């Protein structure tokens, strides 16, 4: 009988000790959770005190060719972006202009402007709103314009590579030149645009950039535009770089006698400040 009593007493003692350990463990967990919540709140408060980036970051590529003699040619190109960030907001202006003449006869006159606003919900995901305008004297159009919302996602990032993808739903307006206008052409229409930008830092002073974009009508699948810009640049100082760029600008619907594809190879000097 005494053995049974002692066994029951020992078992009760062990159960009581285990229960006390569980209570203490739960108390420790609650304490740790409270400390973690306080630390998270402190980190958030400290991040909010970070000074906002008020600087405008500018990247410009300038290209110029001039020849004289039997044939006199002049070619000028300007390709650049200006970016500003404040908090989760960012604003970017893209400019792409080209001009050329042969023996004082104009052979190229085009420019493109795009303004994009973005708001970062996470470090990788943003919502955007874009406004674009293009004028090309030697195309079938007086001008092309579009505007609308979209999303942007950082698909891949490493120490030497970066890939961003974007998608937008747009209201587009393409005005054809009066002399080349197609009957019943729908100037205003709903469209979409997909865009990808890729950066690869091959070595410390050598970088490859690739931009691809595609804009098309929702209703008329043969009404679309594609653009590619490939460039290779090498730094020659803290702010200056030299390189080459190859652009392909494709328009599917053009008037008779107008080339669908406009190719441009440019040597440039770029400046970052």
What's a quick, concise take on this entry?
By secondary structure, the protein is α+β, with helices and mostly antiparallel strands. The chain has one helix at 2-48, and strands spanning 56-67, 73-86, 89-102, 105-120, 125-136, 141-157, 161-176, 188-203, 206-217, 224-235, 240-251, 261-272.
Task: Outline the structure in words.
This protein is elongated. Strands 1-2-3-4-5-6-7-8-9-10-11-12 form a 12-stranded antiparallel barrel. About 15% of the residues are buried. The model has no long low-confidence stretch (mean pLDDT about 85). It is about 15% helix and about 60% strand. The chain is of the alpha+beta class and about 270 residues long. The protein folds into 2 domains: about 1-50; about 55-270, Porin (Beta Barrel).
Helices and strands in order:
Layout: H1 2-48, E1 56-67, E2 73-86, E3 89-102, E4 105-120, E5 125-136, E6 141-157, E7 161-176, E8 188-203, E9 206-217, E10 224-235, E11 240-251, E12 261-272
Antiparallel strand pairs: 1-2, 1-12, 2-3, 3-4, 4-5, 5-6, 6-7, 7-8, 8-9, 9-10, 10-11, 11-12
């Amino acid at each position: 009988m005494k053995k049974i009593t002692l066994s029951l007493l020992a078992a009760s003692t062990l159960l009581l000790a285990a229960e006390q350990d569980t209570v203490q463990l739960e108390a420790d967990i609650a304490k740790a959770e409270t400390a973690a919540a306080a630390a998270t709140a402190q980190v958030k408060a400290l991040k909010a005190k970070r000074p906002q980036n008020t600087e405008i970051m500018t990247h410009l590529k300038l290209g110029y060719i001039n020849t004289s003699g039997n044939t006199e040619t002049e070619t000028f190109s300007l390709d650049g972006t200006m970016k500003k960030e404040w908090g989760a907001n960012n604003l970017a202006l893209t400019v792409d202009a080209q001009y050329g003449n042969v023996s004082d006869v104009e052979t190229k006159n085009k420019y493109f402007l795009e303004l994009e606003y973005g708001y970062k919900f996470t470090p990788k995901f943003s919502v955007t709103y874009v406004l674009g305008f293009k004028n090309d004297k030697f195309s079938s159009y007086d001008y092309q314009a579009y505007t609308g919302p979209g999303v942007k996602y950082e698909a891949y990032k490493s120490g030497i590579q970066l890939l961003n993808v974007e998608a937008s739903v747009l209201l587009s307006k393409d005005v054809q030149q009066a002399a080349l206008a197609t009957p019943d052409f729908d100037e205003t229409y709903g469209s979409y645009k997909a865009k990808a930008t890729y950066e690869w830092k091959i070595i410390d002073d050598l970088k490859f950039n690739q931009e691809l974009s595609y804009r098309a009508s929702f209703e008329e699948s043969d009404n679309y535009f594609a653009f590619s810009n490939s460039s290779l640049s090498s730094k020659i100082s803290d702010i200056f770089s030299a390189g080459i760029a190859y652009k392909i600008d494709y328009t599917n619907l053009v008037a008779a006698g107008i080339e669908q594809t406009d190719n441009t190879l440019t040597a440039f000097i770029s400046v970052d400040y």
